Amino acid sequence: MSQQAIKPSGLPWPARALRRAFGALPWLQRVPSGWAVVMLRLWAGQLAAATAACRDLADRFPDRPDLAARLGALLLAGGAPPAHALQLLNLALQAMPGDAYVRCWLAEALSQTGDTAGGLRHLETGLMLRPDLPELWQVKGGLLLAQGRPAEALLYIDGALAADPASGALWNKRGLCLDESGQWGAAAAAYRRACRLMPRDGAVWANLGLVLQKLGDSEEALRCLRRAVTLRTPDPVLLNNVGFSLMAAGRAEEAIESYRQATGLDPDSVVTLGNLAGALGALGRRTEAIGVLDAALEKAPGDPTLLNNKGHLLREQHQFRDALACFEAALERKPDDDLLLANKAACHFAMGSYEQALTVYRLASLCQPANREHLWSLGACFERLGRADEALDCYNQALGAERAS
After folding, report:
1. 111, 46 in Cβ contact below 8 A?
2. What sections of 266-387 are H helices per DSSP?
3. Which phi and psi (to 5°) does residue 82 adopt?
4. Grouped pLDDT means (10 residues each) for the chain, 405 residues
5. Domain that holds residue 107
6. How far is the C-alpha of 232 from the C-alpha of 323, rounded, in Å?
7. Residues 360/366, Cβ–Cβ less than 8 Å
8. What pLDDT shows up at residue 352?
9. Which end of the chain has the least Cβ crowding within 10 Å, N or C?
């Protein structure tokens, strides 16, 4: 079974940073009448109303790139598709090439279109212009994290935190960097700090729950994930993760209910269907589990994990030929997977085809020579074939591997 990551919610940077940026961004002409309404809405946390008021101003003054830049930033903060924001910010850049905030917002818009490299180029220019600007450090850290470079990203997030240590969004991003680097204890501490600063952000509680699950604290993870559920709109990914934590806590019936809620919201999620099948199988409800796996395989034909899980269930029901067909189909995608090979060999062994089982176990052992389970199974094949000396040799190797581990 597996969990799925939750993307953090909230603005690309803290709301107060957005307000500060609007104050720092120069006006190329006189401040337009009506701008005070935009700022009042923004200070009140009414982002949609602030954006609407700013859009009205931009429509009245279409030749104002300084106004276009502000509207682009508000659109990005509100989660609008980046194309319009990108158009506005490119217009602003032509008139304001030396403004670091415009480059910061443009980098964020480019990253949302998948042009991370272009975004990083604007951030590098912005940092040369304003190395003291924490928003540039934060956005660059976020882009590096999106590129799978968490260690580098952490340097920039920490740089932003030095200037803005009360930002929950930054502590959340610090947790993400540490989480992806495998430093789960430090990540949990960062997420806890973010939760104290942003107690109403469900995504941060979800992130804390996920890392606590990795640390083996299933009960506390479950409490955090359930709190996240109460704070977010119905979220199938989050419900899947709640189910995972319930399974880890040994509460399979509740896990099944959570997985069913998740599949009700997203019936095409192969991950959740696979997890639901695993929970049903754990309770011995194999026929139901196989039905769920068949539904998942309709959406992801040939998926080796789903086929392997179905094969296990069929083997437990002594349907060895059907199980064998599943393992063979999975091996078409992953021919060197030693566990799939071992499962295939186990079916041959159960059907009394010891020579075939021996051949396949040898392939599994070649993939993982120190795996003592494979060595024990090889010994069992030799023993059934009356080859006692070779069986004894395999058993001795297995004992040696066990002592070495």
Report:
1. no
2. 270-282, 286-299, 304-316, 320-333, 338-350, 354-367, 372-384
3. -75, -10
4. 53 64 89 93 91 95 94 91 93 94 93 90 94 90 90 94 89 94 96 95 91 91 91 88 89 94 94 95 96 96 96 96 97 95 97 96 92 94 95 91 63
5. 1-160
6. 41
7. no
8. 96
9. C
Residues, the chain: 405
Angle between helices 338-350 and 372-384 (to 10 degrees): 20
Mark which of 160, 187, 220 sits at the end of a domain: 160
Rounded CA gap, 34 and 26, in Å? 17
Instruction: Classify residue 243: in a domain, yes or no.
Output: no
* Per-residue pLDDT, 11: 39
Expressed in angstroms, the distance from the first to the final Cα of the chain is 26
- Per the structure, how many domains does the chain have? 2
Residue (of 202, 204, 197) closest to 172 by Cα position: 204
In a domain, 25, yes or no: yes
Instruction: Verify that 128 and 12 share a domain, yes or no.
Output: yes
Residue 335 domain-assigned? Answer: no
Rounded Cα–Cα distance for residues 12 and 160 (Å) = 13
Largest CA distance in the chain: 96
CB 14 within 8 A of CB 167: yes
Question: Residue 49: inside a domain, yes or no?
Answer: yes
Of 140, 160, 180, the one marking the end of a domain is 160
With DSSP H G I counted as helix, E B as strand and the rest as coil, what are the percentages for the chain, rounded to 5?
Answer: 75, 0, 25
154 and 174 belong to one structural domain: no
Q: 103 and 68, same structural domain?
A: yes
Residues 28 and 75 in one domain: yes
Q: What pLDDT score was predicted for residue 333?
A: 95
* DSSP string across 173-229: HHHHHHHHTT-HHHHHHHHHHHHHH-TT-HHHHHHHHHHHHHTT-HHHHHHHHHHHH
Q: Are 249 and 222 within 8 A, CB to CB?
A: yes
d(CA 200, CA 109): 26
**pTM beyond 0.90, yes or no:** no
Read off the CATH number of the domain in which 119 is found: 1.25.40.10
